[in-house]
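Here is the promised in-class demo. Please do not try to memorize the tokens; focus on the logic of going from shape to residues.
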């Protein structure tokens, strides 16, 4: 099939492959929504790893979820995708295994990106050109949707909050004795790579300053595996509460929209919060915020140097799920200018890029985000 005919196809069954990780799945939602609009009558199934499947609960327009185990069980997954007789497979994971699954699905049309890794492109019938090397993940995924004739809207990435998730989050916050009318600031000190983790004592220092300056309640957010880290941070902030392990993946979007601001490392929850239009102050070390930063459609806000910050408000109002503070979104990236970055290294003996970012800088960023949200609310109320 010629490339020119790709935008003219009319598949009845579509396999959307984006199994991981949490932030990447959030980034892929605008591309999924573009395909949903482009093919309104098609049945679309999303292939996702079981630990992340909850983030898709209640996603409008999603007809099915194919859950895969990260290790093992691939024969069962291959059988499941073959049984559904897909006409089109869209692979946004860009790795050998996902490309192999696209080919194994039997779909006659298989679309992926030209910069796919591990030889995944060999399994595609159509490779969509990626025009430049540094491109935010959300916009990169959108290229595939556009090649298929979809209207890609980068701001169309709000994640679902089911009634059950809202109820669970309400219960968790009630048990934590979080009071209404008080600014609520989240801290997310985790991250899959150790080199992404700003020192926990800096989080605690920033948290104390945020609590003092804003009169805010502070919650520390992380997975069950990060409970020790989160307890350490919470223990350094009077009145702070660790929520690590008290929520599940399907609760994260609902938890995010309850925050007035989030101070975070480069981690999955950062991307969930950004997708929900929650103001985010993000500490970046070895990774490139232009490619994987908290997403602001059209541009990723970045700051260089220990006292240099900039941010852009995301367009449009905040989601209507009980957002406590801002009615919009903004992002600040806290990043030190170092000659070795962004290195993307998972090991480092000095971590200068993180050590140069001070707790006062982080507290300033969060305070400015919360104050900006209050000003927007006041303007909206006066209109």
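The designed amino acids, position by position:
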């Amino acid at each position: 099939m010629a490339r020119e005919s790709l935008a003219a196809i009319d598949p009845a069954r579509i396999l959307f492959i984006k199994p991981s990780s949490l932030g990447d799945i959030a980034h892929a939602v605008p591309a999924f929504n573009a395909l949903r609009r482009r093919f309104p009558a098609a049945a679309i199934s999303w292939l996702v790893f079981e630990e992340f499947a909850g983030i898709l609960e209640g996603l409008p327009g999603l007809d099915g979820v194919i859950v895969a185990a990260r290790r093992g069980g691939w024969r069962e997954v291959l059988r499941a995708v073959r049984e559904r007789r897909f006409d089109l497979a869209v692979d946004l994971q860009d790795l050998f295994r996902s490309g192999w699954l696209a080919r194994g699905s039997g779909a006659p049309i298989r679309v992926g990106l030209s910069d796919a890794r591990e030889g995944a492109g060999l399994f595609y019938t159509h490779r969509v050109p990626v025009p430049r090397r540094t491109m935010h993940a959300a916009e990169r995924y959108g290229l595939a949707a556009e090649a298929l004739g979809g209207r890609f809207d980068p701001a169309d990435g709000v994640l679902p909050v089911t009634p059950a998730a809202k109820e669970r989050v309400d219960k968790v916050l009630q048990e934590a004795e979080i009071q209404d009318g008080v600014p609520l600031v989240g801290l997310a000190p985790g991250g899959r790579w150790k080199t992404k983790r700003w020192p926990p004592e800096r989080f605690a220092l920033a948290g104390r300053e945020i609590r003092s300056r804003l009169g805010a309640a502070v919650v520390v957010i992380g997975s069950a595996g990060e409970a020790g880290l989160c307890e350490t941070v919470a223990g350094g902030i009077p009145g702070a509460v660790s929520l690590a392990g008290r929520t599940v993946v399907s609760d994260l979007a609902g938890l995010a929209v309850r925050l007035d601001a989030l101070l975070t490392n480069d981690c999955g929850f950062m991307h969930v919060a950004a997708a929900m239009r929650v103001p985010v102050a993000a500490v970046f070390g070895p990774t490139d915020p232009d490619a994987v930063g908290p997403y602001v459609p059209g541009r990723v806000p970045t700051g260089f140097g220990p006292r240099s910050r900039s941010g852009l408000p995301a367009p449009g109002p905040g989601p209507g799920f009980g957002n406590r503070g801002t009615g919009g979104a903004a992002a600040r990236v806290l990043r030190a200018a170092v000659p070795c970055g962004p290195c993307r290294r998972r090991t480092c003996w000095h971590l200068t890029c993180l050590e140069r970012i001070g707790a006062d800088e982080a507290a300033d960023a969060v305070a400015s985000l919360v104050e900006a949200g209050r000003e927007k609310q006041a303007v909206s109320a006066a209109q």
